[in-house]
Specification:
With about 300 residues, the chain is of the alpha/beta class. The protein has 11 helices and 8 strands. The longest helix has 23 residues.
Length: about 300
C-alpha cells in the first residue's frame, strides 16, 4: 500500500514564492504529494501547482518588478482594500487557473483555508471554483476585500490556520510535509522608522506617502525615533505576531511529519518582486532537510 503524502503550504505573503522552490526541489527528489492544502499565498501557489500552471507562475513571479508590484495597489473610496481586484483577477486567470476550473475535477486533492469574518470559524474550501477558493484564502484584511461565498464573508485563512497540517490529515494524508513561512519573522520589520524619500519607488513608499499627512495629523512626532511605524510595517508586524502565535499553537497539537522552515525574515509583506530569492531559499531549505526527508519517507510502507 502506497502512503498518501500531503503538502501543507503556509501563509506568508511575499515569502510564499518559496513554496515554488520547495515543490520543485521535492519533485526532483521524486516526491509528488497527492494532497495539497494551502493557506493564503500557500493556497495560491498550491492551486497553480495542481492546475498545471506553476511553471508559468514562476516565470511571471521572477519577472516581477517593484513598479509592476505597485500597480496591483490602488487607493479607493470604498475602503475595502488596497489591491486592484481587476488586475488581480487577470493575474489569477493567467497564472493560476481559469474561472471554469473546479476543485472536484483536479487530479490531486486540494483545499484552501479561509476564515468566516462573522463567526471566526475556519472554513475549508474543497469544492467549487478553484479561483474563488484561492481568492477567499488570500483576502488579507486591509489589503484585499472580503469575499462572499455561500452567504459568508470570507477573509485570509492565516487568521485561523496559517499552516494547514490538520486539513491534510483530514483529507487522508499519511505523511504531512508542512511549510512554515513564519518561524523567524516576529519583530524583524519593526525597525527604527526612517523618513521615506520620494525617489524610492517601492510598494511601501507608495502607500506610506499617501497616508503620511494623515498620520502626522494624529501623532505629534517631532523626532524621527518617535515616529510611529508606517502603515505597512504596522500591518506586517500585526500579521506576523498573529500568525506566529497561531502557528506555534496549532502545530504543537498536530505536528507535521516533516517541517520545512525557509529563512525569509528579510523579505517584507509586499516585496513580491523578490521571487528569485524566495524560490532559491525554498530549494535550499529542502536541501538542508534532505537527511530528515530521506529518513521519514524511507520508512514509508
Amino acid at each position: 500500500m502506497v502512503a498518501d503524502i500531503g503538502l501543507a503550504l503556509g501563509s506568508g505573503t511575499a515569502r510564499g514564492w518559496s513554496h515554488i522552490g520547495i515543490i520543485n526541489a521535492l519533485s526532483e527528489l521524486g516526491i509528488t504529494p497527492n494532497i495539497i492544502c494551502g493557506t493564503s499565498i500557500g493556497a495560491l501557489v498550491g492551486a497553480s501547482y495542481v492546475s498545471g500552471k506553476m511553471e508559468k507562475l514562476e516565470e511571471w513571479a521572477c519577472s516581477l518588478t517593484k513598479l509592476e508590484t505597485a500597480r496591483f495597489l490602488e487607493i479607493n473610496t470604498s475602503l475595502t482594500g488596497f489591491v486592484n481586484t481587476e488586475r488581480l483577477h487577470y493575474f489569477l486567470n493567467k497564472n493560476v487557473a481559469g474561472d471554469e476550473v473546479v476543485i472536484e475535477d483536479l487530479a490531486k486533492a486540494y483545499a484552501a483555508v479561509s476564515t468566516d469574518l462573522e463567526t471566526g470559524r475556519e472554513i475549508w474550501l474543497t469544492k467549487g471554483s478553484l479561483i474563488q477558493a484561492v481568492w477567499a484564502s488570500i483576502s488579507l484584511p486591509g489589503l484585499f476585500p472580503a469575499i462572499r461565498n455561500n452567504n459568508r464573508w470570507l477573509v485570509d485563512g492565516g487568521l485561523v490556520n496559517p499552516v494547514p497540517v490538520s486539513v491534510c490529515r483530514a483529507l487522508g494524508a499519511d505523511i504531512v510535509i508542512a511549510v512554515n513561512l513564519n518561524g523567524d519573522i516576529v519583530g524583524k520589520h519593526f525597525d527604527k522608522p526612517k523618513r521615506v524619500k520620494k525617489q524610492d519607488g517601492g510598494v511601501e513608499a507608495k502607500i506610506t506617502e499617501l497616508v503620511r499627512e494623515y498620520t502626522s495629523a494624529l501623532f505629534l512626532t517631532p523626532r524621527d525615533d518617535e515616529q510611529p511605524p508606517n502603515l505597512l510595517d504596522a500591518i506586517a508586524g500585526s500579521v506576523n505576531i498573529t500568525q506566529d502565535r497561531i502557528t506555534r499553537s496549532r502545530m504543537a497539537g498536530d505536528p507535521p511529519d516533516i517541517l520545512l522552515s525557509p529563512k525569509l525574515s528579510h523579505i517584507r509583506l509586499l516585496e513580491f518582486y523578490r521571487a528569485d530569492e524566495a524560490i532559491r531559499e525554498g530549494r535550499h531549505c529542502v536541501q538542508r532537510m534532505r537527511p530528515e526527508i530521506d529518513h521519514i519517507l524511507g520508512s514509508m510502507p
